[in-house]
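Example for tutorial group B:
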């Protein structure tokens, strides 16, 4: 079964930066030649996450707010006590969402819901350069 891999480079603005990467993922699927299968989008860092949401202004505020309630910046984190880098909460939030997403592909199209976009969520306290890996497996 054929596979294909590419990457999406991102330069983020730091914590709370949410990027709609749906179009970039779709371009990679078209470039791959794979028509039916699975697309995996993976962040190879421990302070960023990949998920889906309706990419609209309200949710761009609601998601960071909900994550802040789950893992507040001002809470005590053992990671912070060890590393002193101010991002213990970032690691916890990234673990809650997760580093990857798998989307079915049919006839060359991502099988997303009407209001569903693929997003990268930057959770680190500083701007970062990221390379999201996109791997497809399937049939041409």
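The residue assignment follows.
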């Amino acid at each position: 079964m054929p596979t294909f891999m590419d990457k999406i480079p991102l330069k983020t603005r730091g914590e709370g930066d949410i990027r709609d990467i749906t179009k970039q993922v779709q371009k990679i699927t078209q470039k791959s030649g794979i028509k039916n299968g699975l697309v995996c989008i993976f962040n190879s860092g421990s302070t960023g996450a990949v998920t889906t949401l309706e990419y609209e202004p309200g949710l761009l505020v609601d998601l960071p707010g909900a994550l802040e309630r789950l893992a507040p910046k001002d809470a005590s984190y053992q990671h912070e006590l060890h590393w002193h880098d101010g991002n213990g909460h970032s690691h916890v939030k990234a673990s809650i969402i997760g580093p990857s997403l798998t989307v079915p592909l049919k006839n060359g199209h991502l099988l997303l819901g009407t209001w569903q976009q693929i997003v990268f969520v930057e959770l680190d306290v500083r701007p970062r350069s990221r390379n999201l890996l996109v791997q497809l497996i399937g049939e041409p």
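The longest helix spans residues 57-70. Compare this with the pattern of hydrophobic and polar residues in the output above.
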